[in-house]
Write a structure and sequence with these properties.
Length: 925
Amino acid sequence: ATMTSQYLLPPLPQQHQQRTMWRSGPRCGHAPPRPRLVWVLWAWLCSGAWAHQGTQPHSIKIEGDITLGGLFPVHSRGPAGVPCGEIKKEKGIHRMEAMLYALDQINSDPDLLPNITLGARILDTCSRDTYALEQSLTFVQALIQKDISDVRCSNGEPPIIRKPERVVGVIGASASSVSIMVANVLRLFEIPQISYASTAPELSDNNRYDFFSRVVPPDSYQAQAMVDIVKAMGWNYVSTLASEGNYGESGVEAFMQISREAGGLCIAQSLKIPREPKPGEFDKIIKRLMETSNARGIIIFANEDDIRRVLKAAKKANLTGHFLFVGSDSWGAKISPILDQEDVAEGAVTILPKRASIEGFDQYFTTRSLENNRRNIWFAEFWEDDFKCKLTRPGIKLENGRKKCTGEERISRDSPYEQEGKVQFVIDAVYAMAHALHSMHLDLCPGAAGVCDKMDPMEGRLLLQYIRNVNFNGSAGTGVMFNENGDAPGRYDIFQYQLSNTTLPGYKVIGQWTNHLRLSVEEMQWSGGEQRVPDSVCSFPCQPGERKKMVKGVPCCWHCELCDGYQYQADEFSCEMCPFDMRPTENRTACRPTPIIKLEWHSPWAMLPMFLAILGILATTSVIVTFIRYNETPIVRASGRELSYVLLTGIFLIYAITFLMIAEPGAVVCAFRRLFLGLGMCISYAALLTKTNRIYRIFEQGKKSVTPPRFISPTSQLVITFILISIQVLGVFVWFGVVPPHTTVDYEELRPPNPESARGILKCDMSDLSLICCLSYSIVLMVTCTVYAVKSRGVPENFNEAKPIGFTMYTTCIVWLAFVPIFFGTAQSSEKMYIQTATLTVSMSLSASVSLGMLYVPKVYVIIFHPEQNVQKRKRSFKAVAQAATMSTRLSQKSSDKQNGEAKPEESKDSAPKMAYINYSNPDF
């Protein structure tokens, strides 16, 4: 028949035939505006693509009552300008044969679609979305009505046009990009589609791909599983790598979206592999990945070829063992992507939908031969590729190096065979369609044998509802069902490629994921047999006592800053000061009490003052005992016994205060410190002041008259001394009333920059200022006594004790002048407590020793070793003392005048009284 007239495009769904039909002119033009896809179909039809209908040289036709479509990547993508390349044995032939096997099983099953035979129209997509779209138009040709009223054969009779089979549902496609392209066409004609391998999350959009379902879980589940794996390994900084296209880009996008929602995971880089990579492209990718070398984990959604070339580039860059790959199901447990570069892939964690090997299919496929499998139009090509031989016809010579196929070869016996991973899902997809048709037949054709009128024509939207409601045990024993978006449940096996320390190197199952992760980290092995999970982090965890200082804009990157000084780590991001009585622990994660110290008896700082004090106490005791023993001797009487005992008591207390200053502070000890610290010095210097004042007044009065001054008797001297002492005692008791004595712990004194050296000092409530105030009255007495000693310096040598008291006071002043800078100069020292206590006690012992040594040691020496000198001297009256004082003054003036060059007439020697020993302190005087 000669086609001479136009074609008509009907309304897209078969059930809406009431819509206006469109007609085309001879040039297939002049049609009203319609959707773009319709114009594509129109142009395809007008191009003569339907000439010779019924002949499909690139498809398999299986006759049946109900026809299913099939889309399989039998061939790989061809080079530029050529749609198809070499044959794909596993992804193509194995999967396609799985559909044929499933159809055979269903058609032989008396309980599933009884009296109904399933047929098929199977097409090759050549792994190219555009080519698959052209092929899939075969499925919709029966739904497009053609006006053949103007078509006549040469004899004038109407042409006989073979009616194309009606495809009620499609199994496929494999690649997500192909399924997306085909789904856009099939939904226009309401043809349900069930994919066995497309996992792009985009296909879960029920508004755009409402007629699409799949028996494999979408990559959104896979991405969730990969996020869980990454977190389980402690990684928080990874890069992503995707092949350009729906599968790779959608998978990475889902991974990034889930990781953002989950938090705690950052993407260092997200790189894309072009569809047609240029030379050196993969070397550039590896170089870019190394820009963030801390991100060792690489999440890869890529096809096998791209995976292989990425591993090759990493090996070329000498980065074996650096990158830690987490591969999607396109990697799975396949050998081809890692062949000859296993060392680079070692440790790679991959994911694959849970599957099982179908034994029935193995038995079926290994028995296929050229004789019993003529329905597979590509089987001969597979045979040649599988057995590396050539099928020839008579008269055709063989190529060099190729053997001739005999036809006696057998799969698995003469060639390696391993069931392709998606075979199970192809079988489940076919069975899902069959179960939906079975349920539909039971509802629409109850009791009918075969397809009834209600199922002819088949309504696609109704069939879709039955598909979404199927629930049966699949070929591997696992449940097959769909959610509202047409997605299957997420069930994955997790593999790791292991080489070291394994008896069988290869992929090892290390976990599963079914809505939650179960991962055996202890079974994982990495490069070199390392058991510990390598790091893939932007910043390593901070050490205890360090806070995180976040890098702006990168939540997984931070700097670690040590909590310094007396700070501790309050939480992950902040440091806080410890309370004043505490210091941070060694790792600065908490605070601990600061150790409390005090001056110990065995401390070197205490031993020297105690040694001096003990010597002083023994010496003082010896003097007191000697004075008591020789109390009535002239020397003891001449020294003024009453004031001497008072003075010796004060010296004894000065020595004794050393032990109070070293003793452990307590309320009683602190009270005694307050009382006796200044009391000993006050008693000593009050007695010395009274003595020097008495001498000064006697000689000053002697210059004026022969009348003795008042209050020079021993009783008067004791009264004056005790009045002076009472002022000190009164001040101390007022202090007791205002501030009761108590102990305190000083945490500020020993608080150096290093908190490990911090100590709290247990001490009495006496600050440096209060200590000086306690001694201030004694210092006033000492200074006053020194002044009188200076004024009395002109007393003749034979007037006992005047000059020893003077030397005592001069020396004492020097001692205390040295004390002041030492005491206050060590205020910032870490040994302040020890130095100041030692300085104070030693200074007091020295001042006491000076008084004892200069005033009493000579007397004791005379008493003990020269008793012959300890005799009564001739008594003198106050008049003689006054004359001696006057003469002494004149002699001093005369000496001064001679030194100034002035000559004075000498006084008569007889005018001066003889100097005699005058006991000016003797009560008999």
